[in-house]
Specification:
- Helix content is about 45%, strand content about 10%.
- The protein has 7 helices and 5 strands; from the N terminus they run H-H-E-E-H-H-E-H-E-H-E-H.
- The protein is mainly α and about 160 residues long.
- Helix 3 packs parallel to helix 4 and helix 4 crosses helix 5.
């Protein structure tokens, strides 16, 4: 994949411009430390949109803001999730926890596989009750679940259920 950044700058050849940006000392060290992922023994680096998405998310985490990263099909969701979660678990001091909530069972399984292959243990919850139980405990620090587990199934008063 090509690293495209700062497209409006035509002061030099694009290859030179991109190499200078990607290989600047601070960024190169950052890429090696925070952005190399071994997925089943295969070394992977993020694409440019993944890199800047993670950088923006890191800034939100530092400011203790929430947020959502919206992805399209084939955009590299799993890699972004693993790299950001690893960064949070390594850098945030007060025992952080990361819950990855997705909308499809196949994606939930894929995320579990990518995290496992990259050496990060993740707990995939089996039900809404299991998710709530795991969230009330100190460990595991890394969870994944389906958004469907937050539904109104077998609950008459959903607002009271949420309060409880």
């Amino acid at each position: 994949m090509r690293w495209k950044e700062d497209e409006q700058d035509d002061s030099r050849f694009k290859l030179d411009k991109y190499l200078l940006k990607m290989c600047a000392k601070d960024r190169l060290i950052e890429l090696m430390h925070d952005f190399v992922l071994f997925d089943g023994g295969i070394k992977k680096l993020p694409r440019v949109h993944q890199y800047f998405g993670i950088k923006t998310a890191q800034e939100h985490v530092r400011q203790r803001k929430g947020g959502i990263i919206w992805h399209t099909q084939g955009s590299g969701k799993s890699i972004v999730m693993v790299l950001l979660a690893k960064w949070i678990l390594e850098r945030i001091i007060q025992m952080p926890r990361v819950a990855i909530i997705t909308d499809r069972d196949e994606l939930d399984k894929q995320i579990e596989g990518v995290f496992t292959e990259s050496g990060e243990p993740i707990k995939r919850t089996t039900s809404g009750r299991d998710l709530m139980k795991k969230l009330s405990e100190a460990k595991p620090r890394l969870l994944c679940s389906l958004v469907h587990k937050f539904g109104k199934k077998d609950v008459d008063d959903f607002e009271a259920f949420i309060k409880n």
